[in-house]
Amino acid sequence: MLVAAGPGTGKSLFALTLALRSKVPTLYFSADSDAFTQLTRSVSVLTEWRHEEAAKRVLAGDLNMVFDLLTKVPIRFVYEASPTLDDIERAMLAYDEVHGHFPQLVVVDNITNVSTAASGEDPFAGLEALADYLHGMARQTGACVVCLHHVTGPYVDAAKPIPLSGVKGQITRVPETVLTLFRPVREFGGDVLGVSTVKNRAGRADPSGMDFAELEWIGDTMTIRDVRAA
Prior knowledge:
Pfam families: AAA_25
Strand order of the largest sheet: 3-2-4-5-1-6-7-8-9
Protein name: SF4 helicase domain-containing protein
Organism: Nocardia ninae NBRC 108245
Number of domains: 1
Order of helices and strands: EHEHHHEHEHEEEEE
Largest sheet: 9 strands, mixed
Helix content: 25-40%
CATH topology: Rossmann fold
């Protein structure tokens, strides 16, 4: 699966929320965010504390109140800033060695941070070959592999639906499913995150991105949830 959005839209939080709420064994390659950022976000997601409060507690090491919540989530992070394919394979094999099985969910955040032979001069070069590799890894391990990615210039403001053609680097041939995220501008009501299924080999999709679902977005507490759950 490929999830594409403009900067600041919330694609990393979207993926992290998926991992935390699903509670399935997860290996998260967090090349784009450091440990402090991910732990702070995780505390906010699990407790609905304000982000500022979560950050203060993480900095102070005051996590006794959330220790049980954190330890019940079967997620491991890899914080290599520019992982290679060998790094990814090694982490997967190590996970299997430690736990006796591969993770059910693998997140690559984001795909342009992965270092390949073709990406030395251009971070978008070789993306299709990389997608082929990750697709094969998903088939061989049975994991759901979610890769985060960027969009083209006209859609970086994140305010309008993003079509399949708005995904950067022509990488959409390989993934089974492609989602694009945007933040609709609304005069009334709370903030929402728009999720467009622009490619779906197993079901309904709208390449224009205009057919989208809305999720409630509460930035102060790092909350993304179904609107009906509000």
